[in-house]
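Hey everyone, long-time lurker, first post.

I ran two proteins through the pipeline my lab uses and got sequence/structure pairs for each. Pasting them in order. The first:
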Amino acid sequence: MSPTPPALKIAFDPIYAHPLPEGHRFPMLKYELIPEQLLYEGTISSNNLFAPAPCADEIVLWTHSPEYVQKLHQQTLSAREQRHIGFPQSPQLTRREFVIAQGTIDCCYHAFAHGVSLNVAGGTHHAFANRGEGFCLLNDFAVAANYLLKKELAQKILIVDLDVHQGNGTASLFEHEPRVFTFSMHGAHNYPFHKEKSDLDIALNDGTEDGLYLSLLQNTLHTLLDQLEPDFVFYLSGVDILSTDKFGKLKISMEGCRQRDELVFSQLKLHGIPCVVAMGGGYSPNIKTIVEAHCNTFRVAKDIYSL
């Protein structure tokens, strides 16, 4: 495999995989293993990786409420709020979320320069303005999208959320923002059981297989790109659509998941739209399955953009 030039920039910090109490560690393992695998196989080199700093409060506050940000910093989330998030609060976990958010912002600049950039973590689409849910404390796509709008770096943003779970926090945050179009294609009978209203929701029946999934995605994305003419795209490439996923309820194969990434990247490159990618969810029982599916996203990005 030919070496990847440093134009392909990938946000990663060891804090992404920071330890949690027993019973909470499994969701974090992939953040360490994904870059290790990509480095081992030669898909990337260390020159492709960069470690973000924590995002400044001023920037986070363009998306999240002052009261909520204060709770995160002062470790004053209630027991109920922590249960909704799914992790016990800690200063390390808070810092991790601020680093992830800055990583997605930094990726935007690399995407402007080279077409695509990827965050090993991120895709924290269940975080609302004033609360976290579903392993998400800060909504990194929302923070980065608001940053682009505030800095006048983009005028029309499309968020393509292909995690198996609806991007409820993202939908809520941009409900009244016409410059950001939220598209979520997810399992109909899956978390969150109370869905918010995205600009476009496609709710899939349990057991949806490759053919229907890819056909729906291709037709929808083609239409959205032609009608909206976005100048920037955030792509959440969750691999919990796999048939092996413990919570997904869909029947998408590993190859179908790879073809999904290929479809998205090919369309965006064809239209000349820069793209930032975050990994989102993945809960197959075998960690190797999760890592392989996520690594495919990086491999396909490298191939499509010929970086």
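...and the second, right after it:
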Amino acid sequence: MLKIAYHDCYAHPLPEGHRFPMEKYTLLPQQLLHEGTLEEDNFFEPHPAEDGILGLTHAEDYIEKLNKLQLDRKEIRRTGFPLSKELIAREKTIMQGTIMAAEYSLQHGIAMNIAGGTHHAYSNLGEGFCLLNDNAIAANYLLHTNKARRILIVDLDVHQGNGTAEIFQDSEKVFTFSMHGKNNFPLRKENSDLDIPLEDGMGDEEYLDILKYNLPKLINQHKPDFIFYQCGVDILASDKLGRLSLSIDGCKERDRFVLESCHEKGIPITCSMGGGYSEEIRVIIEAHANTYRLAQDIFF
């Protein structure tokens, strides 16, 4: 059964006018239930992750600053979120959602988190709507518990996974792969194990050609026994914060290729939602929903 992390706190309200589309966290599960792609049994509710597990990835003093709400104004502004106890609880719950999804992936081949994909969080600071890095935390949890030996992080959000790259810059067990807009945020990029910067306006055909050339090579060379997939839909032409020009169908084909690649090789995969900032919320929901539909079709 496809298992998916979801908690009501994912849609924690932000001040009116805030540009982050929190409503997608409520609307996406509603859509998937309404159309019959998922049932209530597909969802599980995570609890906040323990600080000890977070400490496998993030600096102890940074975790303490979050717990005590002691980020300074510059640090708060860098995250993009107003700091509160509720926000920290939400972030920790998202982290646990990806950890638990990884456990389910080991059992069923795939699991997903309605939130997550917080790839801008560094080991010691937050950035770009990310305070803690869920894929990094879950990857280190699997390594620490000897449930995985070699991990590949496939980051296909339109923005580079700069925090993930920093966290694993010296790791021989985690390979970081990021395909992202060359001229997109963040202005200062980190060095992933493989970065592919994409030119503005790139469409379906060129994008998919690049992905289909590189991903099989990485799987064959790195031989991962687990994959984390950051499947942001901000690669769409309609996205307000992206500079690429993929269609809904192109985005769906991207997901199909990644999921089928894992399924055919028998590699467990955990998917985190990532970004999506199109003007119309229905476009965001449709693009994200396609990932879940494909997971059901391919794996179950």
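Reply from user beta_strand_b:
Welcome! Quick read of the second one: The two ends are 7 Å apart (CA to CA). The longest strand covers residues 174-181.
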